[in-house]
């Protein structure tokens, strides 16, 4: 068959108007494809934004909310969010003078004469509550009680504040830790032996928050005390999330506690996962009896009890009861938590070392360090990243648990766990002191778990090939 000869005239460039086959889907790298799949997972994407928000709350928050977390606001102790912050300016307190001889005057007081029993002798304020009462029948003495709740018949009347067998001394000034809330006072008649006879005067009243001009100036609420006069209203410091039982700002303490909790929750996993990656990569690459020896040692580490090891490290470090044991806690996590990461990386290395590109790299002269660092570990980054994401909430929860039982971060250093330990003591009366740190722990653990779950799906190369 004769061959056909072609010349340059037989070929021409394609016209711009002619259709050209185009690539329908652009080529994506492994990480680009993983990011697209992660964005499609709404729960994981929301968790990622939540983790970013927690990071900003920890790092940027103290720059915006500059309140000292250790500063005590004694005018607002255990105040919940949104509590009334108004205070009335009053004159400095003057003692309620009485020589003990004349009976207290009951005429001209708040209630009519026929309704007198136990009554306030002046407006009840956080500065003082002054009470007077009429005689009780068959009384050889009197005992005054204060309660936070009205006491029914047969129940305890509350905290005993005053007792006297001088029947003329029928008045009392209460200045014991008064707060702007309702109080219930009771005066019980006593017989000669000091036993209650059953006759009781009762009174419930609401205490108003007051402040002196000098106190307002000392707290920095006004520049000059001379600007205020009795009867003026003034706003106390703002506490968006309330205060704790010592009057410290809860928002500032949550920010300071986040630095401790997240530092432990991120630093410890970084250290023990880095060690686990190196350990597992060495075991998987060497194989044979070195692999078996290394993995049996990791099994031994898994069998060690964490809490007992933590106690031994605290004792060895010289940490005394009541002191923060951050260093022993992080060291215990690093020494006992790496086997899980080592096992995962070892399994990946055992699979990767049989791949064709590893054999090709061996033939081209690649040594063991080059193969592990250049080919094997980079191809396990997906597993390492997911392991890291799941290890962070575990470390945060471990820190919270240890601080809660008093073996981690100790007061006054704030952490979410130690704040929960403090808040549980007053959770029945001021639950916000427990709710907020517990909520931050729960949200952080949930966010990292959902993010890790999304990353596991996004970084799975088998899912990419299936698509």
Helices and strands, with pairings:
Layout: H1 30-40, H2 42-59, H3 61-64, E1 86-90, E2 118-120, E3 129-133, E4 141-147, E5 159-164, E6 171-174, E7 182-190, E8 196-206, E9 210-212, H4 213-218, E10 233-235, H5 250-286, H6 288-302, H7 306-317, H8 326-337, H9 339-352, H10 356-363, H11 368-376, H12 381-404, H13 416-423, H14 432-458, H15 461-466
Parallel strand pairs: 1-9
Antiparallel strand pairs: 1-10, 2-3, 3-6, 4-5, 4-7, 7-8
Give an overview of the whole structure.
With 467 residues, the chain is an alpha+beta fold. It has 15 helices and 10 strands. It has helices at 30-40, 42-59, 61-64, 213-218, 250-286, 288-302, 306-317, 326-337, 339-352, 356-363, 368-376, 381-404, 416-423, 432-458, 461-466, and strands at residues 86-90, 118-120, 129-133, 141-147, 159-164, 171-174, 182-190, 196-206, 210-212, 233-235. The strands form 3 sheets. A 4-stranded antiparallel beta sheet has the order 5-4-7-8, with no helix packed on it. A 3-stranded mixed beta sheet has the order 9-1-10. The protein has a 3-stranded antiparallel beta sheet with strand order 2-3-6, with no helix packed on it. Strand 7 (182-190) and strand 8 form a beta hairpin. Helix 2 crosses helix 5, helix 12 packs parallel to helix 13 and helix 13 packs antiparallel against helix 14. Mean pLDDT is 82; it is low at 106-115.
Short structural summary:
With 467 residues, the protein is an alpha+beta fold.
